[in-house]
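Final paragraph of the annual report: two paired records, presented back to back.
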Amino acid sequence: MLYLHSRGTDVGVINAFGCNAALWCAQSVEENLDAIKWLESIGGDIGLINYNGHSVLHKSAQRGKMNFCRWIIHSVDHVLQGVDSLTFVTPDADSYCPSDLAKMEGHTKLVEFLALWECEVASKAIQQYQEGGRISLPSWLMDRIDSTKNTIDRTALRDG
């Protein structure tokens, strides 16, 4: 990668699937933390969403890359300016969040880790919205809030 970059390769190029170098790095077999950190340091867009709705978190979750996922989450919270956490938890074209993709591949510990973070991100967004912050909730989150309100079974609840 260093050689290609030194020869002028553009890390921002997007292929026919909407993937850039960061998304390919996220879906590799290896953890590639050094590679993704380097890509981010030279301006690689790790916040890109491909045409199927996958972020680098979706790709790395599907491959069970715990350390990679931790780094992405840490980067969103501390390094990436202007990249919204909701970008990384938004369901893909098939309605799967990163934790769903990890679950389909049997990465149980990663599922638990990601699901907690996804809930935290959604809760913070909802709280900001309810407090009148300058945030608009995406339709996928609003739809889930509405469907949850309509499916709560209150028959077993008792007063007092």
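The closing record of the year follows.
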Amino acid sequence: MAMAMTAMDVARTRARNRLAGWVIGAVAALIVLGGGVYSIWLTNTTPPAPPLPAGPPHAALLARDSETDMLQGNFVTQTELYRTPENPVQVIQYYRQLLAKVPGQVGDFLQQGDSILPSSAPEALQNMPSIFASPVAGNPDAANYFYTEYSSGQNDIGIAVDARSPQGPTLVYLEMFTGSDS
């Protein structure tokens, strides 16, 4: 016993559907605008990450990179690679003086790294460039560098000094990982 809709019922249904469409559209627009306002507010109120430590004296910047990954954990990784005519001992002395007041350093350039693989490299040096590799005995990931790593707020910073050439020139790799609590 289906009842046929009258013209008046059809008009009411169309009006109700039109109103529901406008309400849904307005809510969606408010959500988009709210997200945009929040994004702008967050950008303006979040302090910038501290810069990486300065490159060594007389160094040439070979590479600089900054990557953001919002999907896998909301983090930023910044890296710099330098080449300096100084020998590794001079570079390490420079960084020890530069970082003398930085507490909680791990490695303190007294520990030697021997791999560029993330699983074998120090925690703050997960993106070691392949230029640091010195393949010996068939191991393409072997390396010889001294490092330090430390934390500053949400930032993990690592510095690696290539030790393959005792007289120089020396490669220096800096990496900063900035995580987020949000």
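The chain has a mean pLDDT of 85. This concludes the annual technical report; the extension proposal builds directly on these records.
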